[in-house]
Amino acid sequence: MNIESVLRSLLVAAFIGLIEWLCRTHVIPPMVLIPPSQMLMHLLSLVSTGQYSQDILFSFGNIVVSAFVAIISGFFIGLAVHSMPRFRAALEPLLASYYAVPTFIFYPVFIVVFGVGHGSIIAIAVLLAIVAMITATLTGLDRIPNVLRKSAAVMRMSRLQTAWRIQLPAALPYLFGGVKLAVAYSFIGVIASEFILSGSGIGYAIAFAYNNFESDNMYALMLLVLISVTLINAALNFFDRRLQARRQR
Amino acid sequence: MTFALKGGAVETLRVAVESRTPHVTLSQVTRSFKKASTREMFAALGPIDLTLNKGEFFSVVGPSGCGKSTLMDVLSGLARPTSGQVMFEGKVISSVPDGVGVVFQEDASFPWLTVRDNIAFGLRRSGVDGPEVERRVAYALGFMGLRDFAGAYPAQLSGGMRQRVCIARTLVMQPRLILMDEPFGALDQQTRLLMGDELLRLWRETNATVLLITHALDEAAMLSDRVGVMSSRPGLFIDLVETGWERDRDSRVVSTPRFGEINARLWDKLRVETMKVMGAQH
Ligand SMILES: Nc1ncnc2c1ncn2[C@@H]1O[C@H](COP(=O)(O)OP(=O)(O)O)[C@@H](O)[C@H]1O
Ligand SMILES: [Mg+2]
Predict the structure, then answer these.
(1) Terminal alpha carbon distance of chain B
(2) Within an 8 Å CB–CB cutoff, is residue B152 touching chain A?
(3) What is the average per-residue pLDDT within B160-172?
(4) Domains of chain A: residue spans and CATH
(5) What is the dihedral of CA B26, B32, B33, B34, to 10 degrees?
(6) Which residue in A has a C-alpha nearest to residue B98's C-alpha?
(7) Which ligand 1 atom minimizes the distance to the CA of B73?
(8) Of A15, A52, B58, B73, which is least packed with CB atoms within 10 Å of its CB?
(9) Could A170 and B98 be called an inter-chain contact, meaning their C-beta atoms sit closer than 8 Å?
(10) B104 part of contact set with chain A, CB < 8 Å
(11) How confident is the model at residue B143 (pLDDT cuts 50, 70, 90)?
(12) Residues B120, B137: contact at Cβ < 8 Å?
């Protein structure tokens, strides 16, 4: 570990310690926030009793499916768009301003179409995540030096072989940036949708706990989301760094 | 095309002439591009008539931007000529035919593969069996001085070493026609001379036809059977110089008077063309 990551860990620890102290001394009243240690203990007991297992599985199922759908279809859409320069030129400004649209306004429409349940949640999460993947794919394909395509032609590789054996690995570091974003957006899309309008999932459980003044449950679940996101992000960053390490001096 | 020869080179040449069979033939080949700004066409190359004989070592020199790389693209089948045709081993080509290997001017190493896997990439695809792949890759690693870097990734190597990886990747396929676009551009002079010797040895052993594009006149003079001098854009061959070297030659020819004569003749033609290019920029 380098000095920066030690400092960063200390910073996070100090912040948690400060909150802990403010809560314990009742500077922050228990009605507002419970001490982080208590959140963690409560989370552990929730996990061991299995009270929210259904909701946790529901949410993570949705997140995995959404991320997967967004990454795979985003890649192939990117590939297709890249091969049509005219269409791409028409489309690109729309893609660039895509994240200016608050996607969640379409949620009621999805509920009408897919009903309350997995369908509309996944739809909104995919909608949120897919464009990041499309954009990353386009950038990745742009960055492939022309000479690699020529090399593939000299080796008499078919279009499919070239895509699979040359273009995909050559663009992979850029694609991975898209993967990280797609996962993050899937998280946001799923948890937020459950929050608004759903009968199950972590987002729903947090909203339910909030409405019923169960701050123990609420904070424990929020902590669960934070920990999951941090771990997944750390794992993705680890792979990303390994991928990049090969390409840098 | 024939050119007057000086002195003792005539004997060797007659032997070479007798064994001449065409390997690649360009007939009235041109290539034009659209100008990015005005969208009108401009001629980058030709019309060119050229025959490379089987087993010949042919070099191309010319001012930068005269169409050397374009010539190589067309000759390899990577690009279609705007007009005219290219024949390889008796057939008109429309894409890269089997038996052609290309070393590009730019770094074409695959950054996601180790040096070893880069070199083995084409071989593994072509269905050569495992032990033979191992053997050829090991040989190429040694040949190119890359043995200690077999497990390294291209990003960890210098530009010259990456270029050697690309040369190795092409040579292990044992192409019958080898096209190389300024392959030694990133190497220092000493390494360049030694690589030239290695290339000559390989050329003799494999009987391949070689087309080498280079900006180094001495390299062209030392390595080639014939040197083609190109004019400034659109590139045309304005001189074809027969060196008259024996097949069994190496970098020591640089100390012969003939080498000096060839060099002088190449520079004489090229000087004028280079000045045209320089003048056009002012
Ligand atoms: N794909 C292309 N599109 C447009 N112009 C090109 C293209 N490739 C080469 N040219 C132009 O053709 C001319 C010859 O280029 P090139 O063959 O690369 O020259 P050289 O290799 O001799 O330096 C140059 O003016 C270059 O700008
Ligand atoms: Mg060039």
Answers:
(1) 36
(2) no
(3) 92
(4) 37-247 (1.10.3720.10)
(5) -160
(6) A156
(7) 17
(8) A15
(9) no
(10) yes
(11) confident
(12) yes
| Minimal-distance CA residue of chain B relative to A171 | B112
Superfamily of domain B2-99+178-281, CATH level 4: P-loop containing nucleotide triphosphate hydrolases (3.40.50.300)
Tracing tokens 């072989």 back to the chain, one arrives at: A161
Nearest CA owner, ligand 1 atom 6 = B33
Over residues B239-248, the pLDDT tens digits come to 899 998 988 8
Distance from CA of B239 to the nearest CA of A (A): 29
Interface test with B, best of A143, A144, A149, A155 (most B CBs within 10 A): A155
Nearest to B76 among A154, A157, A248 (CB): A154
Considering only CB atoms, B111 lies closest to which of A154, A156, A246, namely A246
From residue A189, alpha-carbon distances to A63, A118, A193, A211, B5 in Å are 8, 12, 6, 21, 79
Find which of B80, B100, B102 to mutate to test the A interface (most A CBs within 10 Å of its CB).
B102
Locate all alpha helices (DSSP H) within chain B, ordered by sequence: 9-18, 68-76, 115-125, 130-143, 159-171, 189-206, 217-223, 257-281
Provide the whole-model pTM.
Answer: 0.80
The b-or-e profile of A43-54 (16+ CB within 10 A means b, else e) is beebeeeeebee
How high is the ipTM of this complex? 0.86
Separation CA B130–CA B124 (nearest Å): 8
Closest chain A residue to the Cα of B104, Cα to Cα: A147
> Does pLDDT of A124 surpass 60?
yes
Q: How confident is the model at residue A31 (pLDDT cuts 50, 70, 90)?
A: confident
* pLDDT value at residue B281: 59
Residue A248 confidence (pLDDT): 66
Question: A132 — contact with chain B (CB < 8 Å)?
Answer: no
From the list B62, B73, B64, B60, the residue with the least C-alpha distance to B33 is B73
Ligand 1 centroid to Cα of residue A155, in Å, is 23
The more confidently predicted of residues B42 and B190 is B42
Q: Residue B178 pairs with which residues in a beta bridge?
A: B101, B210
**DSSP letter (8 states) at residue B45:** E
Tell me: the pLDDT tens digits for B73-114? 999 999 999 999 999 999 999 999 999 999 999 999 999 999
Residues 6+ apart with CB under 8 A from B55: B19, B23, B207, B208, B209
Say which of B106, B121, B155 has its CB closest to residue A147. B106
